Amino acid sequence: MKKKLVSLLTVTAMTFSMLVGCGSEGSAETTQPATTDTQTTQTTETTDTAQTAEQPAATSDFADKKVGVCIYQFSDNFMTLFRNEMENYLISQGFSKENITIVDGANDQATQTNQIQNFITQGVDVLVINPVNSSSAATITDLVVDAGIPLVYINREPDADEEARWADNNWNVTYVGCDARQSGTYQGEIIVDLGQDKVDLNGDGKIQYIMIEGDPENVDAQYRTEFSIKALEDAGWTVDCLDDEVGNWDQATAQQLVANALSAHPETEVVFCNNDAMALGALQSIDAAGRKVGEDIYLVGVDALSEALEDVIAGTMTGTVFNDHISQSHSAADAAINYIKGDGNDHYIGCDYVKVTSDNAQQILDSLK
User: Fold this and answer.
1) How do strand 173-178 and strand 151-154 relate by DSSP bridges?
2) Domain limits, the chain
3) Residue 77 banded pLDDT, cuts 50, 70, 90
4) Which CATH number is 180-322's, of 3.90.1150.10, 3.40.50.300, 1.10.10.10, 3.40.50.2300?
5) Does residue 26 register a pLDDT over 90?
6) What secondary structure does DSSP assign to 28-39, as a single string?
7) Cα 219 from chain centroid?
8) What pLDDT score was predicted for residue 59?
């Protein structure tokens, strides 16, 4: 299946050029996401190529076009940034605000399926769907394709078999998002880059860690969990999982889970969280336990939320991974526009994450203001 990479923000290219040698993915065997055919992290030159959609100019031709957007859950911090940015971008391209309808699936697949059916009945021109359950993608695809409506999946990637169906049948269906394996790898590399002597606080030759996962149905959670630890193992480190809990992307849930885990396992050296919201909750419990990130424990998340970036800058979070909601939301909107124009898209539109540490956190934060 042909895959293209979208351009990142200018700051991303700046960040990569600054971090050449320590910010790349390393060897393809150990850290390169299996589904990524082309890397943009090696040079800034590739950020100018492989555009999925040609950034259509704003036009009144789209004013009467209807866009239906299904978000798995409005309370998700990252998806809030994503949906707001996408709506603003669509409006800038000539769509009428009243013709852009964004609905909250409330983290319930039955609710979201009903919303999709309602959009089909309303005759929207294109659907953008962030599925509650990636495993429901085949059912969703069949509903939408049978209605003759183009479909753009975002953020939660359907499995390879489902994506192969789109290509085999030449359907107007695509996925826009990043490969979560890369984000997990970057989390692990942030820890590895510190050096084993520094992270192995008790000097026993092992790294004791706590893992706080997102939704276990979500492939992002699965891959971040797996590949963050794989990066440590690929570096030759021995790891010891003290606790692995499901926080469902929620800050308050993660706070309680980490509080319990630190009480039961005071020897914890690293806390991995599948997203920043949970990392922020973990930080509250780390503080409450009298521990200090960077001194007697390490903490990493994913998303590069503003609050998390501020913590990285302050040294109260070890690092995070920038999940570029601006690039992704614009690319999703461009893909929708291409379908409306009849231009079509590749069936996979990928982008890269950015490893974030104290070296570049301020740069990323400034770009989001």
Assistant:
1) parallel
2) 46-178+324-352, 180-322
3) confident
4) 3.40.50.2300
5) no
6) TTTTS-TT--S-
7) 10
8) 53
pTM for the structure as a whole = 0.77
How many angstroms separate the CA atoms of 34 and 101, rounded?
35
pLDDT in the model for residue 6: 45
**Which amino acid belongs to residue 280?**
L
Q: Which residues have a Cβ under 8 Å from the Cβ of 169 and sit 6 or more positions away? A: 145
Angle at 47 between CA 42 and CA 50, to 5 degrees: 110
CA–CA distance, 90 with 28 (Å, rounded to integer)? 36
- At residue 261, the 3 state secondary structure works out as helix
Query: Is 261's pLDDT higher than 60?
Result: yes
163/107 Cα distance (integer angstroms): 23
Pairing of strands 270-273, 298-300: parallel
3-state class (DSSP) for residue 45: helix
Class of domain 46-178+324-352: alpha beta
Helix (H, G, I), strand (E, B) or coil at 147: coil
Query: Fold match between 46-178+324-352 and 180-322?
Result: yes
- Give residue 23's region: left, alpha or beta (phi > 0; psi -120 to 50): alpha
pLDDT at 368: 87
